[in-house]
TrEMBL record:
PANTHER family: BIFUNCTIONAL COENZYME A SYNTHASE-RELATED (PTHR10695:SF46), DEPHOSPHO-COA KINASE-RELATED (PTHR10695). This is Dephospho-CoA kinase. The gene is coaE. It comes from Saccharospirillum salsuginis. GO terms for biological process: coenzyme A biosynthetic process. Belongs to the CoaE family. Pathway: Cofactor biosynthesis; coenzyme A biosynthesis; CoA from (R)-pantothenate: step 5/5. Its EC number is 2.7.1.24.
Amino acid sequence: MIVGLTGGIGSGKSAAMAVFEKLGIGCVDADVVAREVVEPGQPALSAIADHFGEDVLTEDGLLDRATLRHRIFSDPDEKRWLEGLLHPLIRTEMQRQLAAQSSPYSVLVAPLLFENDLDRGCDTSVLIDVPESVQVERVLARDGGSEEQAWAIIRQQMPREEKLKRADHVVSNMGSLAELESQLVALHKRFVAQSAS
């Protein structure tokens, strides 16, 4: 059984993932996988350098994310090319890592679970939810930057109302870490029972 875990930026996905891991559940983080497929020695990194030129690499041969981001944000065709290369590789690697888990169920942590239709490959989905104003406060407290930048990131993600409609389970993260944990432990018990039946 695969549980898709998502939430907007600053909602507390990482805290939720930590709770599942503490409960002994195998978690696969889409953001981590996305970094792994472009590590030096991976075919995707060579393809990106061939396509965009060597200036998208740092001196030590790593992907220069800022340069690449700048290139694709100003060119929708280049963005589509990059997504066409990376998305299938990321999906395949996520599936491989999920299949390798030995816990009663596994969790796929993906900020864009609904946006990229990754929930279709999951048996159920959990949304960690906070109001958008709280997301902005938390992002500013965590990363600094400007309020405009934080709102720009939020606007790129699916609207909160749509996520709330699409999620099978909604967990409010407006309280303490202990309150978040108790909600997740209750879900965990349900998932263990479901995966056993």
